[in-house]
Amino acid sequence: MSSAASRQFASARFREERTVDWLELEQRILEIERGRARTLSDEDLLELPVLYRAALSSLSVARETSLDADLVAYLEALCARAYFVLYGVQPPLRRRIAAFFLSGWPLAMRSIARETLIAVLMMALGAVAAYCLVASDPSWYHSIVPEGLAGGRGPQSSAAELRQGLYDGGGSGLLGAFATYLFTHNAQISLMCFALGFAFGVPTLLLLVYNGCILGAFMAVFASKGLALPLSAWLAIHGTTELFAIAIAGAAGIRIGMALAFPGKLSRTAATAKAGRTAAFAMIGVVLMLAVAGVLEGVGRQVITSDVIRVAIGGTALLGWLAYFYLIPVRGEALDG
Amino acid sequence: MAEVRTASGKGHDQDRNRRTFVTPEGVDLKLDIATVGERIGAFMMDLVLIVLTLVLFTIALLFILAGTGAVLAQALIMVWLLGFFALRNGYFAAFELGPRAATPGKRLMKMRVVSRDGARLRGHQIVARNAMRELELFLPLSFLGYQSAQGMASFATGLFGLLWTGIFAFFPFFNRDRLRVGDLIAGTWVVRMPRRTLSNSVAARVVSEEARYSFSDAQLSVYGEFELQKLEEVLRRNDEYSMIVVARTIRERLGMEDDGGGDHAFLEAYYTALCQRLERGMLFGKRKKDKYQR
């Protein structure tokens, strides 16, 4: 009976002999999934690939020799979990952050340089158009600049009122909160600008042009009162960083929209995934830039009221970004997040 | 790294969601794509969690404000704004960057995010797939808000906006792999990752029972693998009523009388004998898929 039973139950014996290893693997995988990889000893970790391969080979054998659906399903689930634990190992966070600043970000920026140029041109186009419109007929101002953003400033304001707006410093003492609000607001807008790129980039382009329009309309009103230079200084201190960041967000969106519309030799999904990689790097950078801009705008601009220093700070920031993105030598490593 | 192909052929639901996923070792892991329903369920749970956290966070800050007066007001506003921003944009990403690559909602629904090429899931992928929520979730919401704020006059505008943004929100319904817009951009997909426990084999327990029943070759060649696995399910469920029905069907088919030995014992014995026979056939490359195969 026993020899007959063992012959009959080849698959049962196969299972009995290996169950210990499977359970062992499952236990270790669970520890790692719970984020307690440290509790495993070096030996345990070194044995992990062995156990994983053993389970994989058990799976292959079980599929070919066993009709126990439960067993096969168990092994499939176990192997899949083990696969993602073993092949999903991330390098340490510190190294990933270093890699982002040393190569990932600048390389992504270089890769979307052409789109960035287009985005900047779009904003410039909007600015020039709105400037000409408002300069020729000030009533355009109200159809371009929304009420909330205008804050009571407009063609009807006197030069003194406008000047006060530029140097007043916001009056209230809530500089920090103001800076934070500006940062979160702008970051949300730029994320939207990026996400809209998925609609073949068209809404992104429109948003960029519109952003430029608001800028141009303001400029026209202030210029008509002889305040063009102070306004430029007022804008420059944070605007060089902020507008640049928005242009980059737009560029990232355009890159995605273009990949979707014209995938080239790649399949459409592969092309968008590839574009998404570059765009995601750029977008992490955009959020960081906007945080810097928020501090410059919320605190720097309110505290510093000298035009020269404002322009100097803004210009330095812009040169700094340009040098970092396009000039410093970067090792051509693979982009890695 | 790992190769991914769609399982060919149109089977029932299970097979349609199954994807070939070959590891570098050359074994196909056969991953299951999560269904839209599961993903909506997970998302709803996450949404509830986010809102709950936000409410608690706000209440906590209000308490601090009440305790300290206006001294810390500015700092508290900053904390709240940053907290809201981090929660709205960072909740999903923070959890998906962890070792399980799943938010609490996804974890409850037994799913995880996986890179479509089988390589490890990178940070930029998670950023990309979650930045797109802006388009999928917040844009339709803003149109909804716009419509209710403007009243009937711009009903058409709101409706048009909603329809347009709906295309992005309902993207997973329109493709086979149930990809969100964010998944498409990031090169990821969401798969089922169940945690199974190994239960005892149905056959192993019944060696002693076998003597009572003996099945002829003809009786054992009636059914195939499909029926065997259905029988396994019935035995695992151990539901008396369905066992009575199944046992009667099988007895009729085999032409056997009910010997009063109990349906469970009979089914186990038949399962064991059939399993043995089919597994032996497998060793020689002879497989019988179901009862229709000759």
UniProtKB/TrEMBL annotation, chain A:
InterPro entries named in the record: SpoIIM-like
Keywords: Membrane, Transmembrane, Transmembrane helix
Short name of one Pfam family: SpoIIM
Record-annotated membrane-spanning stretches: 117-136, 189-210, 217-237, 243-263, 275-296, 308-327
Name the UniProt record assigns to this protein: Putative membrane protein SpoIIM required for sporulation
UniProt source species: Sphingomonas kyeonggiensis
TrEMBL record, chain B:
InterPro entries noted in UniProt: RDD
Pfam family, one: RDD
Source organism, top-level taxon: Bacteria
Chief place where the protein resides: membrane
Topology versus the membrane: Multi-pass membrane protein
This protein's record includes keyword rRNA-binding: no
Ranges where the RDD domain occurs: 34-187
Subcellular location: Membrane
Keywords noted in UniProt: Membrane, Transmembrane, Transmembrane helix
The protein's name: Putative RDD family membrane protein YckC
Organism for this UniProt entry: Sphingomonas kyeonggiensis
Source species taxonomy: Bacteria, Pseudomonadati, Pseudomonadota, Alphaproteobacteria, Sphingomonadales
